[in-house]
Amino acid sequence: MNAPRASAEDYIQFLIATPKVASAAEAARAQPDHPTAPAHDAFTRLLHRLEPDPAALWDEARSSVRPGGAVVLDDSVLDKPFARHMGLVRRCWSGRHRRVVSGIGLVTLLWTDGAALVPCDYRLADPARAETKNDHFRAMLAVAKGRDLSPRVVLFDTWYSGKDNRKAVRALGWHFLTRVRSNRRVNPDRTGNRAIEGCPIGAAGTVVHLEGFGLVKAFRIATGDGGTEHWITNDLDMDEATRAVLAGHAWGIEEYHRGLKQHCHVDRCQVRMSRAQAVHIGLAIRAFLRLEWHRLKSGVSWFAAKTAIVREAVRTYLAAPTYLLTQKSTT
Length: 331
Known about the structure:
The chain is an alpha+beta fold and 331 residues long. The protein contains ten helices and eleven strands. It has two domains: 8-151 and 238-314, no CATH class; 159-237, no CATH class. The protein has helices at 8-17, 24-29, 40-49, 54-61, 133-146, 163-171, 240-250, 252-264, 274-298, 302-319, and strands at residues 70-79, 90-94, 99-112, 117-124, 153-156, 176-180, 185-187, 194-195, 206-210, 214-222, 228-233. Helix 6 links the parallel strand 5 (153-156) and strand 6 (176-180). Helix 3 (40-49) packs across helix 9 (274-298) and helix 8 crosses helix 9. It comes from Gemmata obscuriglobus.
């Protein structure tokens, strides 16, 4: 059997370099002139034959993960507004659009120390399977424990702050920090459970009993728009300064999702099959990992790194322009 013409690394490097279009045909057109350059069907076969494997991401990410730091879990929707017969696409709520849209649900586990943003694991919401986002949340935490991750804290937003998820983090021997809704019921003084918004919470945090869970430390934070946020952690020794720093780390996953979409084309794959979509998404995440490693090493942002590739192509063209107006002959 002949060796495949296109490899995973070929496609990853194409995703890093291409400014806009991410398709097998465009990947073939962009290849350097060479007798053995892969054609578009080689990239198509690559996407359909590779095994979607989050473990391949971890193999590349593990060297960038150190003890401590924070593990952040959240989901994002890969917009597919015009998809009618595309695998993995379903109707789901989008925080970006503030409405239900057609898209692919991506759940990510990210490690960060406040500077590095290292995707370690991911799951795709498959309409054909019964797993929920909460199932993926707990499964990725269990896998992370098996890989000997030892984060200072696990961060997640209100949507994932349910009892089963909190207990799953505690069962792994880790601490969590999460926002909760203002109607979450706690017992601050052994007089009965009531909504956390109506309880006295000190500026440095207050230890309360969370209904169905146990003791947590609660914080009430004033927001810029005049509202309030409520945060809880099972680390009863956490102070407000530490909470503020760690809460800032949680924003890293939003930056990651934005970078993944803007610079790695994770949501632009032009294939219908579920397997091919899953392979493309996995390779796009590995492309982001390369951009992030370059950023940490050189200080060059993802945007600047992408722009430098395009700038070199523009420079090459300007050295010998080909689209010129020719003078018409006169008689």
